[in-house]
Amino acid sequence: MIHLKLLEIESELRAKEQVEAGFVDLPLECYWLIEYVEREIGIRLGSEVFSKWRGWLYYRRGSDSLIICRGRAFSTGVIFGKFRAGFDVDYGLDAATEYERGFDVTPPQDLDHLLLNFGNSANPMVYLWYGENLEPYRLIFEADATQGPHQELSDAIVEALRWTLLRPKDQSLHEFLDSQKR
C-alpha cells in the first residue's frame, strides 16, 4: 500500500514538472485531443442552450488546457428568451460573460471539475486532473498523446464525471473512493 502511494505521489510530481515546462508550440496530437474532448462534451461555457438545460460544459484555459464541470442554463434577456450555459452556481452567467470577454475564468470552489492539459517530455503526455474545493489537483489519467489515447481518455473522463455526481458533498474524493472499495 505504501509503495502504491509513493508511486502515485511521484507520478503527480513528474506530471506537474512536465506541465510547468510547457511547450513552445503545442504538438498537433494535443490539439486533436482537446478538440475530441470538446466535441464529446458538446456545450462550451457561454453557448446558447435551451431553457431547462443542465449538464456538463467545457472551456479552454489558454490554448493548452481544458476545464470540464457542471453547468446550467441562464436567461440572458426577458424579451427574446435566450439562454446561455454558465457554471452550476448562482453567479454562473457572470463567469460565462467574463469568459466570452477573454478573461481567465477559474472554476468555482464548490464545483468539482476536471482539468485536461499536457506535459513536455520526450513524447507529449496528456494528463487529466480532478479538482475539488481547495484540495490540490489529483492526477487520474496520463498517457502518451502521440499514441492516440482517445478512448482511454474518454473512459477516464466518464469515470471522473461519475465520481462527481455520486460523491456525497460531505466526503472528499479520496474518502469516497475508499468507501467504494469496501
Describe this entry's structure for a reader.
With 182 residues, the protein is of the alpha+beta class. The protein has one domain (28-166). The protein is built from five helices and seven strands. Strands 1, 2, 3, 4, 5, 6 and 7 form a seven-stranded antiparallel beta sheet that branches. β5 and β6 (125-131) form a beta hairpin. The longest helix has 20 residues, at 2-21.
When the domains are counted, the total is: 1
Largest sheet: 7 strands, antiparallel
User: What is the percentage of strand-forming residues?
Assistant: 25-35%
Distance between the termini: 15 Å
Which class of secondary structure composition applies to the elements? alpha+beta
**Low-pLDDT regions:** none
- The overall pLDDT, averaged over residues, is 86
Radius of gyration: 17 Å
Shape: globular
Order of helices and strands: HHEEEEHEEEHH
In short:
With 182 residues, this protein is α+β, with helices and mostly antiparallel strands. The chain contains 5 helices and 7 strands, in the order H-H-E-E-E-E-H-E-E-E-H-H.
List keywords for this structure.
alpha+beta, 182 residues, single chain, 5 helices
Topology summary:
Blueprint: H1 2-21, H2 28-41, E1 48-49, E2 54-61, E3 65-75, E4 83-87, H3 92-100, E5 113-119, E6 125-131, E7 138-144, H4 150-166, H5 173-181
Antiparallel strand pairs: 1-4, 2-3, 3-4, 3-5, 5-6, 6-7
